[in-house]
Amino acid sequence: MSTRWYPIYQRGNPQLRIFLPNFWMKLVRPEEKQPKNVVQFKVPTGMTNYDIENYLTKIYKIKVIKVESSIENGKLKRSIMNKYGPIIKEDDFRRAFVTMPRDQEFEFPDVCNTEESKKRNTEDEKSSKISQDMYKDYLKKQGDRPGLPGWFSF
């Protein structure tokens, strides 16, 4: 576990200490087209633009020109199991756009582009389609009786 607090001194030879931040940064594929030297991250709301810049320069040694960020609300979702279930809200997050120098470019790598992964994806899609159809049939049989267990049927 990482911590921002300085550890308590212990007697003895010099100790190796590693200080890691308590923050995380998630690299996000952009939804809209943007320049090659701009990278998009999702970060916690407690992180400031200055923290983002220091995180990238100190840990990853990336030269940062500018950081723009905004706080976005988490999505509201209804429970998957039934349409009358509780509404669940995801955590809020900060979306950060980091601009690097013009000579630096970032491109997402094509990690899963093999024939085997494509074949596996088509099989997964078929099985998920079958399970969705089965669930829809189950809901049709239940009719307007939300929340009743499956064993309590006709």
UniProtKB/TrEMBL annotation:
The keyword Translocase does not apply. Pfam families: Ribosomal_L23. It comes from the Eukaryota. GO terms for biological process: mitochondrial translation. It is found in: Mitochondrion. One of its GO terms (molecular function) is structural constituent of ribosome. The keyword Mitochondrion applies. SUPFAM superfamilies: Ribosomal proteins S24e, L23 and L15e. Keywords: Mitochondrion, Ribonucleoprotein, Ribosomal protein. One of its GO terms (cellular component) is mitochondrial large ribosomal subunit. Belongs to the universal ribosomal protein uL23 family. PANTHER family: LARGE RIBOSOMAL SUBUNIT PROTEIN UL23M (PTHR12059:SF5), RIBOSOMAL PROTEIN L23-RELATED (PTHR12059). Component of the mitochondrial ribosome large subunit (39S) which comprises a 16S rRNA and about 50 distinct proteins. This is Large ribosomal subunit protein uL23m. It comes from Aphis gossypii (Cotton aphid).
